[in-house]
Amino acid sequence: MAEITLKSLAHTYLSDPKSPEDYAIREMNHVWHQGGAYALLGPSGCGKSTLLNIISGLLEPSSGDVLFDGERVNALPPEGRNIAQVFQFPVIYDTMTVYDNLAFPLRNVKTPEARVHERVMEVADVLELTAQLKRKAKNLTADEKQKVSMGRGLVRDDVSAILFDEPLTVIDPQLKWKLRRKLKEIHQRFEITMVYVTHDQLEASTFADKIAVMYEGQVVQFGTPRELFETPNHTFVGYFIGSPGMNFFDVSFRDGRVLADETELSVGPGVRRAIEGARSTNVKLGIRPEFVEVHEAPVEGGMEAVVEHAQDLGTYSIVYLRLGDTPLKARIEEDQAVPVGRAYLRFPDERLGLYVDEFRVEIDHE
Ligand SMILES: Nc1ncnc2c1ncn2[C@@H]1O[C@H](COP(=O)(O)OP(=O)(O)OP(=O)(O)O)[C@@H](O)[C@H]1O
């Protein structure tokens, strides 16, 4: 078991990189603490698999260090790192039985047979593979094969960490939910550091205590699902987390007013001061659809908006609005009427985020 530290780590697949865009991993520092259940979340191509392969030793980083419990392991091959990795597609021996497949990683490190038996039975039980133990792996369904593959990753309890690279991609949707819960249960039972790569926010937040959100080769935020939702550090996190994502407005300060395009926004003095003081032309205000206050009639401090349409999603609706030229979405609960034609909006100050050059900055509300 280990704490995994990534120190000034960067990676490029090019021999002559010239700009930050040439890097699959841009210089980063990051710590995965011993025993944590983590997710690495981001869109396709942001560098998740590259990072995982650097941790497991399948790939050597272009610069920087990988440390396990403070020891530099850059030169150690995967077998020397004591890491288990579960891939998107099953990695199993078709001609072996399920039992022998699960026993393989243990026998490989000369584990006594009594202990092999104990662990295989325990993992098979958790993954509901006990009835299949005597079957040849080639006769299993795709789902069962992937469960065996996961079992092979989980069977050793002496590994430094288990890395999962989108392990549920080939699994039937109904089973996915169940397996994610199982993984969480296994994590709680065995307390092994687990890093779970996915591009699915639901998958990340049901599995992980903390999520590292990756964007263009950088971890732009490392936080609990709640932190990512309530205080996204970067506009990308705002867009990517939540359904629908956060609303953003390009804002400027002119003649004492805060403007989104040419429309004046009604904001408190702290927000106004922060926008006035921002030293960039790339300034955005962000607010989640859940936190936009929607009124049918004019209210004090309310901004008049056009209601374009609404989407009824059962227990709530998403209302598509336009404030001047700026589109935005608001979520309203089923007990509230959906406004028709016009609506009056308020943005509670404490729910607004200010983003300068895409990163969140603190607002002093005093
Ligand atoms: N072997 C390689 N050679 C050259 N470029 C690569 C190689 N592998 C990945 N890349 C590039 O590095 C960047 C990061 O890719 P990576 O596979 O790590 O992202 P990812 O987030 O895991 O994406 P996905 O979810 O699609 O697997 C991408 O621009 C990709 O095209």
Automatic annotation (TrEMBL):
ABC transporter domain location: 4-241
SUPFAM superfamilies in alphabetical order: MOP-like, P-loop containing nucleoside triphosphate hydrolases
Family matches, as PROSITE patterns: ABC_TRANSPORTER_2
Pfam family, one: ABC_tran
GO CC terms: ATP-binding cassette (ABC) transporter complex, substrate-binding subunit-containing
InterPro entries: AAA+_ATPase, ABC_transporter-like_ATP-bd, ABC_transpr_FbpC, ABC_transpr_MalK/UgpC-like, Mo/tungstate-bd_C_term_dom, NA-bd_OB-fold, OB_MalK-like, P-loop_NTPase
Top-rank lineage group of the source organism: Bacteria
GO molecular function: ABC-type ferric iron transporter activity; ATP binding; ATP hydrolysis activity
Protein name according to UniProt: Glycerol-3-phosphate ABC transporter, ATP-binding protein
Keywords: ATP-binding, Cell membrane, Membrane, Nucleotide-binding, Transport
